[in-house]
Design brief:
alpha+beta; globular; 4-stranded antiparallel sheet; NADH Oxidase; binds flavin mononucleotide
Length: about 350
């Protein structure tokens, strides 16, 4: 009976998939009754709402400021550079800088960077446009003292002095997902900080870096978290620490940018894996499922607001050399690269 029922369910699902994948109206109908996207959609809307509410308000790192300063930097390096640019967002940028610079919470390096770029912008831009003039006035009224040297666009230094690094290649080929770890082999917080600082050098859309890392080696918290992902069956108990990669939808104000938290966090996470490897630690990415119940559970355990969501977990520790590592044959350029086709 049970077998017959699941067969019927599968037949119905196949029928629906056949019909509903035909066009977007039918696809919408299909998802009306599916809960697959509920958490994601709520998280996205909550992020867009938060961006609009607090874009210019005080917070540690301001996504709007980062985005606009990045746009100014691109304007500054444009060839040929326009005598007048950024007229549509310079006021917003200076206002946001003013808000952020008056908050003790704001990141100093972010403010120094914004200050340098704004100073350079007003130094080179033609001061005829009304908006540029009023923005300059406002900028001059802000009493900000940078703590570090200038952070303006620079000329590329050409080929690096480092030799083509065979050590880098070695590191890349050596890295493999490790699932068996030595007891109590979690990295020190100093190493975790260095690894995260390296990972944060990754590229990101408009340099917004709308994601964060949370490191966990507390046994109770670790045990609670490791109950959630499906892919740790059989080896969860020996994982000494976890890095939780968290995306923040409130860094964006357009629905079309909803994929960026995944891309940015993943580019950075790859650097994280290599950086850990470089410090003698091993890792294994653990899949985080797109599942409403699990998303709610992990957000509640980590006390995350709705607009933040877990993207992946990474097990971290030192490999137990008596534990096996799957060979995991990779594809190569013969199957995965086409040129000028
Ligand atoms: C997004 C993602 C999810 C993964 N999820 C799991 C998982 O849940 N459990 C696991 O044991 N390995 C997981 N892995 C590790 C992969 O199985 C592993 O990267 C792949 O087999 C290639 O092997 P390698 O990492 O040793 O090169 C995951 C990797 C990625 C990138």
């Amino acid at each position: 009976m049970k077998h017959k029922l699941s067969k019927l369910k599968l037949t119905c699902k196949r029928f629906l998939l056949n019909v509903c994948s035909f066009n977007f109206i039918l696809a919408k109908f299909y998802f009306l009754f599916s809960r697959s996207y509920t958490f994601e959609q709520t998280a996205l809307l909550s992020g867009l709402r938060r961006f609009n509410l607090i874009a210019k308000k005080k917070r540690q790192s301001n996504s709007l400021l980062r985005r606009n300063i990045h746009r100014l930097e691109k304007g500054l390096i444009m060839q040929p550079r326009k005598p007048e640019f950024a007229t549509d967002y310079i006021e917003e940028t200076v206002e946001t800088f003013k808000e952020c610079s008056s908050s003790s919470q704001s990141s100093v390096s972010e403010l120094d960077w914004a200050f340098s770029v704004l100073t350079e912008y007003f130094r080179v831009v033609k001061l005829e446009h009304k908006k540029i003039q009023s923005s300059l006035k406002l900028f001059q009224s802000i009493n900000y003292l940078p703590k570090s040297s200038s952070k303006i666009p620079y000329l590329h230094k050409g080929k690096s002095d480092l030799k083509h690094s065979s050590e880098f290649e070695e590191l890349v080929y050596k890295r493999a997902s490790v699932r068996w770890f030595e007891k109590n082999s979690s990295p020190s917080i100093d190493i975790v900080k260095r690894v995260v600082d390296i990972s944060l050098q990754a590229p990101s859309a408009c340099n917004r870096q709308s994601f964060e890392y949370r490191f966990v080696d507390n046994k109770d918290l670790l045990a609670k978290l490791l109950k959630l992902p499906g892919g740790v069956t059989g080896f969860a108990d020996n994982i000494p620490s976890l890095m939780v990669v968290i995306g923040d939808y409130s860094g964006y104000y357009l629905e079309r940018d909803r994929h960026l938290i995944y891309i940015d966090a993943s580019l950075s996470s790859m650097m994280l894996l290599l950086a850990f490897e470089n410090f003698g630690f091993n890792t294994c990415v653990l899949n985080w499922p797109e599942n409403d119940k699990k998303n709610k559970e992990i957000n509640s355990i980590l006390n995350l607001p709705t607009y933040k969501r877990v993207i992946m977990l990474v097990a971290v520790g030192k490999a137990d050399c008596s534990g096996g590592v799957p060979y995991s044959q990779k594809k190569d350029s013969s199957t995965s690269l086409t040129v000028n086709e």
